[in-house]
Amino acid sequence: MDSMSQASSTGPRFQLNEEQEMLVRMAREFAADNIIPVAAEYDEKSIFPADIFHKARELGIVNMLIPEEYGGVGASCFEEALVSEELGYGCTGISTSLGVNSLAILPILIAGNEKQKAYWLGERAGGQGQFCSYGVTEANAGSNVAGIQTRAEKKNGAYILNGSKTFITNASYAHYYTIFAKTDLEAGHRGMTCFVVDRDSPGLSVGKKFDKLGQRASDTAEIIFEDVEVPEENVVGAPGQGFYIAMKVFDHSRPGVAAAACGLQRRALEESVKYAGEREAFGLPIYQHQAVGHKIADMAINYEASRLLTWQAAWQVDAGIFNPRVPAYAKAFAADMATKAAVDAVQVFGGYGYMKEFPVEKLLRDVKIFQIYEGTSEIQRNIIVRELFHKS
């Protein structure tokens, strides 16, 4: 599939510049050489792709959002989306593990001070190549972010954290976490604060890794806080600003998630085109049977539409436009259409699509989480309705 867009200060165009084309080629070759050959094994054995992460880091295609002054490449959201699609094409379980550092550092990029950025982004994530995780979700607070119950109580110039976070990507391997906790339980969403919490903090423990349906190369676990002392200097932004920081994070992160879903869609499409061109039934390649051919045509239509929405959302972030509706469009549509593409790809393959020897079986298991994490498809629609009917 050809790449067709660019973000600029004047708006999106439909031609990548030479540097962006090189970035896409590099990411595509990296996925072909380092991800696709091991994806099935890493999925089956739930192997965490630390080796792949460090190779990608050497190329500059993880931690892409870290600015140059802190030792990163200072990539745009659009450029990160280009890479996310290519890595997602290879394996969305592996790409999720590679990409979660960007999610975890976003609160620091958005609201952190210079000292925090230099240390956590530059020295820790950039210089030492450490893993970091993002902690909002709790057992009783998933879609309802404001409903978190993890408590941070100020005491003797520090904060004492108690509570837990669940379904946290890379939790078992992270060296530090950006954690959202309530500093005022009575203040609703205005009582939430963001902290950076070091993995070695006494009282912090990580629970057993979850055994998942799909994206099994991605580590997912629970974090428990028992009287964990966090220095006041680790507060990101000001106390009480956590909810607003989390909402800004989602606007920045959803284009990347949508892009990975686009990568899975493209993989489903290309595998279906290849199989339907070779497989025959009733004396014809099966794509010539309209029931099959139209499924593949719909995959192509929905992929192109998903990608354009994703790039629009990424361009908007780079242009400094705050409009939560567009990232919600992109994330909801790309997730839903990726799910449809995976289901239809299995149908195109027929009985073979249900077998692990063929790649579309894994696509179907991997895809479902796109409708759940980073805000469910239902939550995206809630955002869209809210923004459509918002009266200023």
Would you mind describing this structure in some detail?
With 392 residues, the chain is of the alpha+beta class. The protein has 3 domains: 110 residues, Butyryl-Coa Dehydrogenase, subunit A, domain 1; 111 residues, Butyryl-CoA Dehydrogenase, subunit A, domain 2 (Beta Barrel); 142 residues, Butyryl-CoA Dehydrogenase, subunit A, domain 3 (Up-down Bundle). It has 10 helices and 10 strands. The strands form 3 sheets. A 4-stranded mixed sheet has the order 1-4-5-8. It has a 4-stranded antiparallel sheet with strand order 2-3-7-6, covered by helices on one side. Helix 3 runs antiparallel to helix 4 and helix 6 packs antiparallel against helix 7. The longest helix has 37 residues.
What count of domains describes the coordinates? 3
Average of the residue pLDDT scores: 94
**Uncertain ranges:** 1-10
What is the radius of gyration computed over CA atoms, rounded to a whole number of angstroms?
Answer: 21 Å
- Kindly report the spatial arrangement of strands forming the biggest sheet: 1-4-5-8
User: Architecture of the largest domain in CATH?
Assistant: Up-down Bundle
Largest sheet features:
4 strands, mixed
CATH class of the largest domain: Mainly Alpha
